[in-house]
Specification:
By secondary structure, the protein is mainly α. It contains six helices and three strands. It has a three-stranded antiparallel sheet. The chain is rod-shaped. The chain starts with 7 loop residues before the first helix and ends in a 14-residue tail after the last helix. This is Sodium channel modifier 1 zinc-finger domain-containing protein. InterPro entries: SCNM1 (IPR033570), Znf-SCNM1 (IPR031622). One of its GO terms (biological process) is RNA splicing.
């Protein structure tokens, strides 16, 4: 029983208890024992019918795939369907590589020449030097700097004062 074609359940039709029919062969031979069916499955006629069966099955599968592809191409050309994801990704990468400058991103802002980089430099610009201010004088609240207004990250102000 070392048969590697179709499974037993797909190639055998049980008619009544002691009778089995081969569903691969077009002439549907009927056998009374499983041993006789096994002998038939090793025969030349059954192997030829099995090859024809697989050819028809492959041709049918190819025809279905061909029709699906034609539908997909028609829908893509008509603009009803988005292009394939890999094709779309390849187009984006190609366009990005051909650009001379980076595309505009609304989250990124240019920093001015007077401003430093990062959060630490903006907080240093807000705090006045300790040696210039006298301990008894207080400075009025200053409006927020441009670094605070253009920063895309949300800031929490729990105290309410900019200077402490």
């Amino acid at each position: 029983m070392g048969y590697t074609g179709l499974g037993w359940s797909l190639s055998v039709y049980c008619m009544s208890f002691p009778r089995y029919a081969c569903t691969v062969c077009h002439h549907r031979p009927v056998f009374h024992t499983i041993d006789m069916l096994s002998v038939h499955r090793g025969g030349k006629k059954h192997v030829t019918c099995l090859q024809n069966f697989y050819k028809k099955k492959a041709a049918h599968r190819n025809e279905v795939q061909k029709r699906r592809h034609e539908e997909y191409v028609r829908a893509e050309e008509a603009g009803e369907q988005r292009p394939a994801p890999l094709l779309e990704q390849t187009r984006k990468i190609t366009q990005h590589a051909l650009l001379k400058s980076a595309p505009y991103n609304s989250c990124c802002t240019r920093k001015r020449a007077g401003e430093g980089r990062g959060k630490d430099s903006s907080s240093k610009a807000e705090d006045p030097p300790q040696s210039l201010s006298s301990p008894g004088t207080t400075q009025p609240d200053l409006p927020p700097t441009t670094a605070e207004t253009t920063c895309p990250e949300p800031r929490s102000r729990s105290t309410g004062d900019i200077l402490s």
